[in-house]
TrEMBL record:
Residues 55-150 form the Methyltransferase domain. This is Carboxy-S-adenosyl-L-methionine synthase. It comes from the Bacteria. One of its GO terms (biological process) is tRNA wobble uridine modification. One of its GO terms (molecular function) is carboxyl- or carbamoyltransferase activity.
Amino acid sequence: MDKVFTKPITKQFEFDEDVAVVFDDMLERSIPFYKEVIALTCKTICHHVKEGAHIVDLGCSTANTLLALHKKSDKSYHLLGIDNAEAMLHLARQKVHAYGANIDLEHADITHVALTCKDVIIANYMLQFIRPLQRAAFVAKLYDALNPNGLFIFSEKIVFEDKVLNKEMIDLYYDFKREQGYSDFEIAQKREALENVLIPYTEDENKAMLRNAGFETIEVIFKWGNFATFIAKKKV
């Protein structure tokens, strides 16, 4: 169970071994409708792509999304997960082996890895950790890596332009975390650890970034408070 922030923090947030061993629990208790978002992502992909599609999950962590796709689809896909945290991939490999899934896992910096000819790119709660000065160029790179009619699906924490409403959404989110068993101390500790590490955009800023990269079809397919899941389609 996630107890990472029950003690005073000594560093900024990192996806290290301490986080990796409790990460799945942390995700389910920290992200509203986490499992439902994965299920929606997988169903969307299964409806959109054909047998043999090439699908990559950037920042795959412990491979939850790829494993869900493996279990839910009756099609055979080329599944690849990339993450820069070896501790996460160690757990991912164990889970992939346990399920007998045909999923390739690669230890690499997602901002530097070469990507080509992908039918779907997934990036859940990952772009927010890329520095704003690099983020737009990275999304443009993803657009170029997609095949025509390819999908880019990603989930993000977002901020609201209205400062009062934004504060209210943050308070509602903290209420959600309390309902999951987190203490006010743990909530404050994680907020401090993520400061200047996780930098979210507004919904409109995310959409503008996608348009500037070349995407024409851009929709929000799920939203809860200050969390949103986007889908962008490359033109045929």
